[in-house]
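Before relying on records like the one below, remember that each one covers exactly one chain. Contacts with other chains, cofactors or solvent are not represented anywhere in the record.
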Amino acid sequence: MTSSTRDETPGPAAVPAEGPLPNTVVVPADEDPVSAAGSEVFGGPPGRRALLGVNWWTPAKFLVLIAIATYVLGMMQKLPCYEDGWFHGATTQYTHACYSDIPHLFSGRGFADGLHPYLDPLPQPSPDMQYLEYPVLTGLFMQIAAWLTTTGGTIQDREQWFWMVNAGMLMVCAVVTVVALSRTHRRRPWDALLFALAPCLALDSTINWDLLAVALTAVAMAYWSGSRPGWAGVFIGLATAAKLYPVLLLGPILVLCWRSGRWRAFGQALGGATAAWLLVDLPIMAANFKGWATFYTFSQTRKEDFGSFWLILMQDRGRQLSTLNTWIGALLVLCCLGVGWLALSAPRRPRLAQLAFLVVAAFVLTNKVYSPQYVLWLVPLAALARPRWRDFLIWQTCEVLYFLGVWSYLAYSGDSKQHGIGQDWYHLAIVLHLVGTLYLCFLVVRDILHPDRDPVRWDGSDDPSGGVLDFAPDRFVLGTARRLREDESYAEYAPEGELDWLVEVDTTKR
């Protein structure tokens, strides 16, 4: 990397063998073997006297260019479908792995006819879906794109234009995401390169509108890291108005604030999230409650679908599970309770990004459907939770194989020629996705239980994205953390200043 800086101020800075100097920016090539090997393409890691990033060419600007390049490659990958694959031959878009919901929903959800989402019924409604089945902010995003789409030409021309407009707007979301990530870990802006170069960013960004929620969630994480919990809550609320999963971040914030006694910060985040969500959703609720509720009712009534382990179970047993929602809810609650216990009992308070990744991964793994673009929810959180290229690329490889597998299976099942893979091979693709995600979850949990293995904390950091929680002393702990406080060995885990608080508590007891 030739655009990094070793110090916040101009001038040479040497990096000792035991880790970076205080107030320095961490360069991946100095601490990550895969990154160091990759940097050889550009002449090797930066030297000890590198004066990089001290002028106009900052890490954020370099990351934006990389993210745009990756995104454009993904748009080029959709070119076979853009030309005619979305319109001629049902399986062409699958055999070329270039499917996108965007052009199909332009007509299928009434935008081509000038219908208003949530207010006007769909052109061809079904009993369980009579209005647009997306959250309100995503519907607004789609409506803006429809307003910018030409009203002349054939329906195919208009669908192509609609896709291009959405692709441009979603590119802005990708840029916002990478900038927010670079500003979340203050000493580790280059961790955002994991997102900017992620293969799934190229492959999945224009399948659906998930990048909108991803960008808002990344901004929320950046505001939290800047000790602005109220604004973090606002963007969590906006992200939840675009997709459901961001609301899960309030869980990790709750348990971490509980452990550190920072209840005011949690209250500000919760209040901001609630106010922002209501501001967006209340007008639509008042105008047509049934239209607003379609997203939630459709999510509840839909059956097991592509990408989930529930699909494997149902296809193997040959019948559906009538209590599927109950099982999913119970598993998700158990997973979240497990993450909560981990947060309160770990020897050292976990980082917010670690817990956020775990709860969103739990949601993805237990859900009744896993669309390929859902991986975008996890990519920014993975870059913050475990910024190690080897593990990240192993996981991304599993996700790319699933991406290819699902389209190949749809091509096989949607055409009499059966070009693609059958059900057994598709089940293997689902298992690869599950195993890859569980592998990364295992590493994050291991880092939490053994803080000395955490790639972020190895240089003495506590929680660069923790905001008011960074180096905060513990106030409430359970399990292992409580036992460690009675053991002198706790000193190796304790953040700076926490032992002083423990001495005060012990003196008070005596």
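The first helix runs from residue 28 to 31.
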